[in-house]
Amino acid sequence: MCLGHYGVALGAKKAAPKTSLGTLLLAAQFADLLWPILLLVGVEHVRIAPGLPGSLDFIDYPISHSLAALLGWALLIGALYWGIRRYIRGAWVLAAAVISHWVLDFIVHRPDLPLIPGGTARLGLGLWNSLPATLLVEFGLFAIGIVLYASSTVARDTVGRYAFWAFVAGLGLLYLAATFGPPPPSTTTLAATGLGGWLLALWAYWIDRHRGVAPRTPAA
Ligand SMILES: [Zn+2]
After folding, report:
1. Please, are residues 9 and 25 in contact by the beta-carbon 8 Å criterion?
2. How many CB atoms lie within 10 A of CB 151?
3. Residues with CB in 5 Å of ion ligand 1
4. What per-residue confidence (pLDDT) applies to 115?
5. Residue ranges, the chain, pLDDT below 70
6. For residue 169, which of 139, 146, 191, 208 sits 20 to 30 Å off, Cα-Cα?
7. From the CA of 36, how far away is ligand 1's center (Å)?
8. What is the distance in A from the centroid of ligand 1 to the CA of 198?
9. Ligand 1 mean position to 65 CA, how many Å?
10. Cα 193 to averaged position of ligand 1 atoms, centre (Å)
């Protein structure tokens, strides 16, 4: 999944208003931010396979994408955040966001997601086999996230307004380019592009600093 993870990060703001969108994004996308690093150092492996959905054959990715590893990362990230910020609600939401990555990937991937590192079980419902269904789910989750984030925050200034909508439009275009463009020329290029996700997290921190929590509308 791609846009769906961003949808989770955006929507999670409503559940944890005091947590920055940047941190929420780091959590929801943690698996895909760690993955390119592990690819580059040769710990995890992927093969470019133009015939497959997404043109990728995920050979192994036990540390970034097994359910057990993500439960561990969720615990670690939640605990770390609580230790630094003392905002328990944010800690729980971040942990849930980390785990949500596996659940969403489980829906779209072919059966290639491991349960535990070293285990033989591989899971995935394969939604990626249908392009229309994939686009519907990806854009659907993304749209829900946008509505939740936009309604639970208000722009403090022009940066808060335009940087947010540029972020949303940019993500949508990047996704379409990746989906309908040619497959990546090499796994190194793929990993290098994947590292760009860290920049998106920085962008999200910048946006969030320019937006405040929306005042609750009084009940009519
Ligand atoms: Zn993933």
Report:
1. yes
2. 12
3. 31-32, 105
4. 96
5. 217-220
6. 191
7. 10
8. 14
9. 7
10. 14
pLDDT at 219: 54
- CA 160–ligand 1 middle distance (angstroms): 28
Q: Are strands 211-213 and 122-123 parallel, antiparallel or unpaired?
A: unpaired
Residue type, 77: I
Position 53 scores a pLDDT of 80
Q: Where are the beta strands (DSSP E) in the chain?
A: 45-48, 56-60, 113-114, 122-123, 153-155, 211-213
Closest CA to 90 of 140, 43, 22: 22
pTM for the whole structure: 0.94
Question: Ligand 1: distance of its center to the CA of 191 in Å?
Answer: 13
Token pair, residue 92, equals: 């729980």
Contacts of 77 (CB under 8 A, 6+ apart): 26, 27, 30, 94, 95, 98
Question: How far is the centre of ligand 1, averaged over its atoms, from the C-alpha of 22 (Å)?
Answer: 18
- From ligand 1's centre to the CA of 32, what distance in Å? 5
Is residue 2 classed as helix, strand or coil in its secondary structure? coil
Q: What is the length of the chain? A: 220
**Residue 1 CA, ligand 1 centroid: distance in Å:** 6
**Would you state the pLDDT for residue 216?**
74
Say how far apart CA 97 and CA 100 lie, in whole Å: 5
Residue 98: both structure tokens together = 């980390």
DSSP bridge pairs for 113: 123
> At a CB cut-off of 8 Å and minimum separation 6, what does 145 contact?
6, 7, 8, 9, 10, 11
